[in-house]
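Lecture notes, unit on protein representations.

Consider one protein chain, 153 amino acids long.
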Amino acid sequence: MNTQGGATRNNGGVAVTLAELEAFLAREFPQAFGPGRPHAVESIGPRIATVRLDAGEEQLRPGGTISGPAMMGLADVAVYVALLGQIGLVPLAVTTNLSINFLRKPAPGALYADARLIKLGKRLAVGDVGIRGAERDDLVAHCVATYSIPDRA
């Protein structure tokens, strides 16, 4: 798996570099990606991606833990990144379903979402996501998300 500026190829020959993906996300989602923003793509590969959330005060909830909506957003983004790494830069791929189980209270700080596509069809993709804290040991949340893939002319 080459994730440092080289091509990440799927079985169909689609290639997206990590740099192309990062530039796309910073342009299309400037609220989340780019310098000074909370999300960063750690790696991409065939049907997989890891995305980091540097949770700051705005992602915390009372009790000093990272909020559920922040973790749901991270899981959603991770599946989107895995999908785009596989099919190319298709901005109108959208979430159609997302189910998350919160397993334990994550400490404030970085979270990592490891996504893998478990189904990739012409119109739908299903991804599985494990979210871990900075120690990257036990899962703090598990998510399954479905994406709708638009027609590609």
